[in-house]
């Protein structure tokens, strides 16, 4: 992707950011106008995602990708946004789920809170950015953006149950974010870079005496990702949080766990493939067995659920376990 089309890669991030800023300028009132602005922006985001996917498909190559350098700094010194078929598909999926959730919310749920539309757009911004970034630190930034928005959305509508599980949800994600930072710091200390592709290129050059530190950093980072991906036993927070959230918010939250799964897929297949030498398929056993146990836990939870909201929450856990177990085998036919 070259020329003007390459600049479209950053548009899914800038569009919801600008929309959220505009709605903040409108003040606490004018909810009908905010609803229209939110809907138009979400539809525009879906159109952008479809255009980006179509442009990749038009190149006719399975490994086609596009790169955008916001500051025009060369890799690995500047922020890098990368679009390939996987990230493009995740953009389309996020936009479709977001549009469906918003249409449902416009019936009545959006009136339960003043800043629903602003938080909704910030949530989309964080999701789009997480799927597009090629840098670990910027992945952390987008994680925090989407999590900060999710805190407000989870409490949307009020009520004691939402406040109780909301505080639990915040505490768990703050710990996961701390582990994320620690893991990033360790990996940066070993490799000297935070660009994902550059990390993969430098891993074979890591001295033997630093290999243990590399694996420790990767394991700490994996715990943060897997907590967000709802891997057992790190998923104790999810049924309560998703079950207490309003229906449109819970639908959008289903994508949040997939961000954790996406991060695991990106980093693990990039940094620890079968030909990575001493680090080949590092942690594959934990992913496979953790995924299988998560799948079983989610299936039992679905059978035991007597409420539709908790049934849906356990189905999210089941899907996460299935994906993580498949990635852990390290087979291209399963991991993509």
Keywords:
336 residues; mainly alpha; two-stranded antiparallel sheet; 14 helices; 71% helix
Q: End-to-end distance, in Å? A: 22 Å
In terms of DSSP E residues, the strand content is under 5%
- Which blocks of ≥5 consecutive residues have pLDDT under 50? none
H and E string? HHHEEHHHHHHHHHHH
Task: Write down the domain tally.
Answer: 2
Number of strands: 2
Main β-sheet description: 2 strands, antiparallel
Main sheet: strand order: 1-2
Principal-axes geometry comes out as globular
Helix content: over 70%
Give the radius of gyration: 20 Å
The helix count comes to 14
Q: What is the residue-averaged pLDDT? A: 83
Based on secondary structure, the structural category is mainly alpha
What does this structure look like?
With 336 residues, this protein is mostly helical. It has two domains: 134 residues; 178 residues. It is 71% helix and 2% strand. The chain contains 14 helices and two strands, in the order H-H-H-E-E-H-H-H-H-H-H-H-H-H-H-H. A two-stranded antiparallel sheet has the order 1-2. Helix 2 runs antiparallel to helix 5. It is globular.
Sequence-ordered SSE layout with sheet pairings:
Blueprint: H1 4-7, H2 11-25, H3 31-58, E1 65-68, E2 81-84, H4 85-105, H5 116-132, H6 136-154, H7 160-191, H8 196-202, H9 211-228, H10 238-244, H11 247-271, H12 284-304, H13 308-328, H14 332-335
Antiparallel strand pairs: 1-2
Helix pairs in contact: 2-3, 2-5, 3-4, 3-5, 4-5, 4-11, 5-6, 6-7, 6-11, 7-9, 7-10, 9-11, 10-13, 11-13, 12-13
